[in-house]
Write a structure and sequence with these properties.
This protein has about 425 residues and is mostly helical. The chain has helices at about 1-15, 20-35, 40-65, 70-90, 90-120, 125-150, 155-180, 215, 220-250, 255-275, 280-285, 285-305, 310-325, 325-340, 340-375, 380-410; strands at about 185, 200.
Length: about 425
């Protein structure tokens, strides 16, 4: 039962990554067929991002009421319907209309699945599941390429992936009873500081009270992790969007070489998450986050060094992907331990909103800044995001340690009598 549901979740993560690269891969042809400027892609992605942020913030309420299994199935169904709708759209306004359920479905399932895995499964699975998401995101451009080269058009790529999502929806609906029968992994109270161990434990009954947003952000340390998550996702998305331009404009790398190594950044993230899964349980979430940010910091320095050869800068981009790999999964997986399982769904929903906000707003901000300063500022910009993310996670560690020390001292205090 445990393994069967885990296999379903793995398939779900691969499938969830499939739509995320479709707009970018198909837009050079889509905007011509629809008769709109290239820049309209920004408006479409903003609608998707807006829906994702809203549903992430609402995910705690709906997940508590209906359960992670139901929310996941319905959300994937919404995404499937949106993708099929994309395939039938012959105007830009229709794409914008279907982008609404696309974004709403994506945010709800992201928050629900991430919290469920964080509570029920070990850290290695969180890394491997997010690697599967990267695998799905890497496959979809090839599906779009095949659709365009075969002459069937971009709409057939959306239809193919939409049909895959429909099949997944039926599989998830059948699996709903399993979601309530898998025992979670709960943090132990082994000591007052450091990463806690993990053990299988019976799940308590669902909490009946909704945690409002204002209440969740007042929990000590929540604003710290939201800022860190915002910084990390801003770092990742800025690197994805602008790394190739930096290599060409500032380092004089040929466009073909720059594009190849920019794609290796994404492959580095995917491969790094598969590798991180083998060490995550032994090292713990804190060490994975700390080591990931440190490795990205080293790679940023490699990008910035003014050497005659570009080998170090190109290698730095690949290393940056490996460094980024464990940070996102480890932040999510540590949430139930840092803030308690009763609070984790609400906090992970807010974290998803912070993540999408960072990845949506910061890359255009960097574009505006670099227009005035030049692309040389790219490594410095990334370095500031690395420093912000690392500083906030280390401050969170101190807050959590103090809370554990107080709790440990209280629970072990001698009683009178």
């Amino acid at each position: 039962m445990y393994s069967l549901l885990l296999a379903i979740i793995y398939v779900a993560f691969i499938s969830l990554g499939l739509p995320d690269s479709l707009v970018g891969a198909g837009w050079p042809v889509m905007h011509q067929d629809l008769g709109v400027p290239v820049a309209f892609a920004g408006g479409l992605t903003m609608i998707i991002a807006g829906g994702t942020i809203l549903s992430s913030l609402a995910s705690e309420r709906v997940t508590r009421r209906f359960g992670a299994g139901v929310v996941t199935a319905v959300s994937v169904g919404m995404t499937a319907a949106a993708l099929v709708g994309f395939s039938m759209s012959n105007s830009f306004w229709m794409l914008c209309l279907w982008a609404i359920p696309y974004g709403l479905g994506a945010g709800a399932v992201d928050a629900a699945l991430n919290n469920y895995v964080a509570v029920h499964y070990a850290a290695r699975h969180m890394n491997w599941l997010h690697a599967c998401w990267g695998l799905g995101a890497s496959i979809s451009p090839f599906i779009m390429s095949y659709a365009l080269s075969s002459g069937s058009g971009w709409s057939s790529a959306y239809l193919i992936i939409g049909v895959i999502q429909v099949a997944l929806t039926f599989g998830l609906l059948v699996s709903i009873p399993l979601w309530r029968r898998v025992n979670p992994i709960a943090p132990t109270a082994a000591g007052p500081t450091g990463d806690t161990g993990e053990t299988h434990a019976e799940e308590p009954g669902p909490r009946s009270t909704h945690i409002p947003l204002a209440q969740a952000v007042r929990i000590p340390g929540v604003l710290l992790i939201l800022t860190a998550f915002f910084a990390y996702c801003a770092l990742e998305s800025t690197a994805i969007l602008w790394a190739s331009t930096y290599l060409v404009a500032d380092r004089g790398v040929t466009p073909a070489t720059a594009a190849a190594f920019a794609s290796l950044f994404l492959l580095g993230i995917t491969a790094g998450r598969f590798l991180a899964g083998f060490f995550a349980d032994r090292l713990g979430d804190r060490s994975m986050i700390r080591g990931g940010f440190a490795l990205v910091g080293v790679s940023v320095a490699m990008l910035a060094l003014p050497l005659q050869t570009d080998v170090l800068a190109l290698a730095g981009l690949v290393i940056a992907g490996l460094g980024c790999a464990p940070i996102y999964p480890a932040i999510i997986h540590s949430t139930p331990v840092n803030f308690g399982r009763d609070n984790s769904q609400a906090i992970i929903g807010i974290q998803m909103a912070a993540a999408y906000t960072g990845s949506t707003l910061v890359p255009p901000l960097f574009g505006a800044i670099s227009t005035g300063t030049g692309m040389w500022i790219f490594p410095l910009f990334l370095a500031l995001l690395v420093a912000l993310g690392l500083f906030m996670t280390e401050r969170l560690n101190r807050v959590v340690d103090r809370r554990r020390q107080v709790s440990y001292a209280t629970s072990h205090a001698p009683t009178a009598g």
